[in-house]
Amino acid sequence: MQIQINETTLELIQGDITQQDVDAIVNAANESLAAGGGVCGAIYEAGGREIFAECRQYYKCCATGEAVITGGGKLTARNVIHAVGPIYSGTPRDAELLADAYRNSLRVAVKDKLQSVAFPSLSTGIYGYPLDEAAPVALKAVKDFLQTQSHQLSLVRFVLFDDKTLQEFENALKHLEI
């Protein structure tokens, strides 16, 4: 499923984010930028030690809602944007921090003059953010960024791991006001 937002294609697919041929994939990182489970573990495993070494060399840590960039190591994607989503607590601050993680990832991409970015569903794995709440926040944050910020992005893709996640994002996209 895809829509156009100005000159940018916003696309939802089911798949493996580590296999995406884009300028950058987004890692569902933790604040210490250490290898973890889920998306983060898969990216570090597929991309190799170079990604972790670059994180250690340049960043050491990243606050919730923020994002930093490294090379892509052995991945097809040339870069990895490490975004830290919130651990779900059920407060309104969760949505603000989740939206910040998406917006700040896009800011990093624009700063580095990237044209294509692939996101996973941030914070919906081990961080416990309910999919039905996270999907609308994610899509609105990306849509608002694409509509209001100067950028060169031609493709923003959400690569969603399973059918349930894809369905939640498709439902949220159908209800998104463009």
Protein model, in words:
This protein is α/β, with parallel strands linked by helices and 178 residues long. The protein is built from 5 helices and 7 strands, in the order βββααββαβαβα. The protein has helices at 38-47, 49-58, 92-111, 131-148, 163-174; strands at 2-5, 8-14, 24-28, 67-71, 79-83, 116-119, 155-160. It has a 7-stranded mixed β-sheet with strand order 1-2-7-6-3-5-4, sandwiched between helices. A hairpin with a 7-residue loop joins strand 4 and strand 5. Helix 3 (92-111) packs across helix 4 and helix 4 (131-148) crosses helix 5 (163-174). The longest helix has 20 residues, at 92-111. It starts with a strand and ends with a helix.
* Percent of sequence in beta strands: 15-25%
Q: Give the overall average pLDDT.
A: 93
Give the SSE string.
EEEHHEEHEHEH
Q: State the distance separating the first and last CA atoms.
A: 15 Å
Query: Helical segment tally?
Result: 5
SS-based structural class?
A: alpha/beta
Unreliable segments of 5+ consecutive residues: none
Number of strands: 7
Task: Describe the SSE topology.
Elements: E1 2-5, E2 8-14, E3 24-28, H1 38-47, H2 49-58, E4 67-71, E5 79-83, H3 92-111, E6 116-119, H4 131-148, E7 155-160, H5 163-174
From the structure above, extract its key features:
178 residues, alpha/beta, 7-stranded mixed β-sheet, 7 strands, 39% helix, 20% strand, globular
Please provide a brief summary of the model.
The chain is α/β, with parallel strands linked by helices and 178 residues long.
